[in-house]
Design a protein that fits this description.
Length: 310
């Protein structure tokens, strides 16, 4: 039986990946620093600190496929300090176990694309500090593949949203606010198209990358519905019943004086001041998968947020 190991099994992407693998009745090892105390059938919780090489190696022992979905605090400092170490330890653990690695990535390493749609062939040209960290990790994975024989497949998503996606900007500024009866918000320019990827589609896509031989050794854009504008997303979230607000750049800069989250977000502002369009058509054609429509995904996210708020 194939052993699937999800590194970061309690984060939202890890949980969705596990759910997708379990839909196929696959046995899963869910690795996290604080594993669930009430695991579901077919899921084995494992405690490990992936920043420690020995702990990561133990977690990956006997693995056939590993999915690296670990989330980190949204700071450049944490990314620079921890992400290369975690990836290096995951690579070493996979090579020792003879496992394939499925690496979950975002689009920061692309940098500014001047409004052009992002595809798998978009050059890696980061224009932010966080993007530079991501680009360094991609070079590390390339070297492990070319020099050490690692089999690695990359699944990339746009900004994400979904049920329980507490770190998602769209969840925080739109979904959670509507659930609390407040007007939803968008950053900078709500008239521009902006792709967002539904977290259950991310998990299902990563499961495909780890189980379908056609995916091996490539980079794939995970299923993402055609981009809407910020105004269209907010209308779906509010049902047209609430006015929406747009956060100005000056307000963000003022907030950055007091809030670390605003400071960390400023360098990524370009994603909201020009079209941000993510093309996943290659994945959809190859695997016959359609992304979840935004109306459906936003409704599901609202139900989860409303249940939590109520």
């Amino acid at each position: 039986m194939t052993t699937h190991v999800v590194l970061g099994g309690t984060g939202v992407v890890g949980r969705e990946t596990i759910a997708a693998l379990r839909t196929g009745d696959r046995e899963v090892r869910a690795v996290s620093r604080t594993p669930s105390t009430a695991p579901e059938s077919g899921v084995t919780p494992v405690a490990a600190d992936l920043r420690d090489a020995a702990s990561a190696a133990d977690a990956l022992r006997g693995a056939d496929v590993a999915y690296l979905t670990v989330g980190l605090p949204y700071t450049t400092t944490a990314w620079r300090r921890d992400l290369p170490v975690i990836v290096r330890n995951a690579v070493d653990g996979c090579l020792a176990a003879g496992a394939r690695l499925v690496y979950f990535d975002n689009v920061y390493a692309y940098g500014r694309t001047d409004g052009r749609p992002m595809t798998e062939s978009t050059p890696i040209r980061p224009t932010s500090r966080k993007g530079a960290v991501r680009a360094d990790v991609l070079r590390m994975l390339d070297a492990a593949r070319d020099e050490r024989g690692l089999e690695v497949t990359i699944g990339r998503a746009a900004d994400f949203y979904g049920p329980g996606a507490t770190t998602s900007a769209f969840n925080m500024f739109a979904i959670d606010r509507v659930a609390a009866g407040k007007p939803p918000m968008w950053m900078f320019d709500a008239s521009l198209p902006h792709s967002i990827t539904y977290t259950p589609d991310i998990g299902a896509g990563l499961a495909v990358l780890g189980t379908d031989d056609r995916a091996r050794g490539r980079t794939w854009h995970l299923p993402t519905a055609p981009a809407l504008t910020g105004e269209e997303y907010l209308a779906l979230a509010s049902g047209g019943r609430l006015p929406h607000r747009t956060m100005s750049m000056s307000a963000m800069r003022l907030g950055a004086l007091f809030a670390s989250g605003a400071r960390e977000s400023l360098e990524m502002a370009y994603q909201y001041t020009e079209p941000y369009v993510f093309d996943s058509s290659a994945f959809e054609r190859e695997f016959g998968v359609a992304p979840t429509p935004y109306a459906e995904g936003i409704a599901a996210s609202l139900r989860t947020a409303s249940a939590k708020a109520g």
